[in-house]
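pasting for the record
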Amino acid sequence: MTDFDEIYRGVGRKIRQTRQNQRLSQESLAQRLGISRTSMVNIEAGRQRAPLHVLWQIAELLETKLTLLIPSPEELLAPQSQNVLDREMMKQIEEVANGDPATIKVLTGFVTKKLRGKASTTISERKAHGKTQSRRKS
């Protein structure tokens, strides 16, 4: 099933990138749209799902096509991988793949999945061995 939250985070990243490339502040864009700066922050972070007409207005104000603000499936995979993999790991993957984008994508996805699985296994192992810290209420 599609992760719609990730789609909206991807749209937000593209809006932010386009806005920054045009040296436009969040405040300025929000004012032109007739929304609060907080809403603009949340749209760019993917926490607020902007209606289609607002996305259309954003594209118009940024002088771009709406379709360019919508990430492809490949673009949605890349940011998740980059959060897990450090630069050195990405450099090694690129070297092994000889710069082939398709191979880089496959290897990045594989390594990311393994690393995420390892992290959740580690947490599960700690719980099984009673080594997790309890949360204190303040």
